[in-house]
Amino acid sequence: MPTRRPPPAPGQRTPPGTVRIIGGTFRGRRLPLPANPALRPTPDRVRETLFNWLQPVVAGARVLDLYAGSGALGLEALSRGAAEAWFVEQHGPSAAAIEAALAMLGARGRVIRGDVARVLGSPPAAAFDLVFIDPPFAAGLLPELCKLLGAGWLAPAAWVYVEQPRAASLPSWPGFGVHREGTAGDVRYGLLCRLPPPSTANPPPPGDR
C-alpha cells in the first residue's frame, strides 16, 4: 500500500509544483507553479479562513493582487465571484504562469510585470475594492505600500489583506482598522477595513469645542 504524506502543518507553505483553488467555480483545480525559491503561496488553511471573512464582499469586487507570486489569492477571488483581478508580479516565469492560469480558467484578469512600488507610484489606472499584499518579509515594505495605495488605488469601501512575519504587528494605517487577524506558522495575517468617518450629526456647541 502506498504511503500517504501527512497533511501540512498550519502555516506550512505548499512546495513548488502546483497550487490548488479551494472554493468557488474553479474549486479543486490545480495550477502549475514555476521554479522560484522565493515563492511561498498562502497555505490552503489561511486562504480558507480569509475567504470566509471576505464572503460578504468578494462577489463583484475589483481585486488587486500585489507581489502576486503564484496568483493564488487573486485566482481564488475570481473563483468566488470577483469581477476581475489585476496581478502585479516582477518574476517573469511567475507572471507567465498566472497569465496561463487565467487563460486556462477563462477568468477575467490582467498581469502587470514590474516592481510593485514602481507600479503603484504611477497614476492609478483604477480603484480597487479588495487588495492583497504579501511582500518579501525582510524588505519592510508595508508602510510605503500603504502610502502609495492611498493615492487613489483604493475604492471608498476597500478591504486590504496583508501578510507579514508573525513577530510583527499589522500596519498602523490612517483611516483603516484591523477587522480580523490570525497567525499560522511564522506568518501573521490580517484583514483591514476602512473606518467610518467621525460622526458630525450632532456637533458640540461652539463654546464646548
Question: What does this protein look like?
Answer:
- The chain has 209 residues and is of the alpha/beta class.
- It has a single domain (18-195), classed as Vaccinia Virus protein VP39 (Rossmann fold, 3-Layer(aba) Sandwich).
- It has five helices and nine strands, in the order E-E-H-E-H-E-H-E-H-E-H-E-E-E.
- It has helices at 44-54, 72-79, 92-105, 116-121, 142-149, and strands spanning 18-20, 30-32, 62-66, 84-89, 109-113, 128-133, 154-165, 176-184, 187-194.
- Strands 5-4-3-6-7-9-8 form a seven-stranded mixed beta sheet, covered by helices on one side.
- The longest helix is centred in the middle third of the chain and has 14 residues, at 92-105.
- It is globular.
- The N and C termini lie far apart (77 Å).
- The model is unreliable at 1-15 and 200-209 (pLDDT under 50).
Based on the model shown, name its key terms.
209 residues; alpha/beta; Rossmann fold; seven-stranded mixed β-sheet; 9 strands; disordered C terminus
Strands of the biggest beta sheet: in what spatial order?
Answer: 5-4-3-6-7-9-8
Shape descriptor reads: globular
The helix content, as a percent range, equals 10-25%
How many strand segments?
Answer: 9
CATH architecture: 3-Layer(aba) Sandwich
CATH superfamily: Vaccinia Virus protein VP39
Strand fraction band? Answer: 25-35%
Element order, helices and strands? EEHEHEHEHEHEEE
How far from one another are the termini? 77 Å
- How is the main sheet built? 7 strands, mixed
Domain unit count: 1
Mean residue pLDDT: 85
The first-level CATH class name:
Alpha Beta
Q: Do you know the CATH topology? A: Rossmann fold
Unreliable stretches (pLDDT < 50, length at least 5) are 1-15, 200-209
Please report the number of helical segments. 5
Task: Label the structural class.
Answer: alpha/beta
Question: Radius of gyration in whole Å, from Cα?
Answer: 18 Å
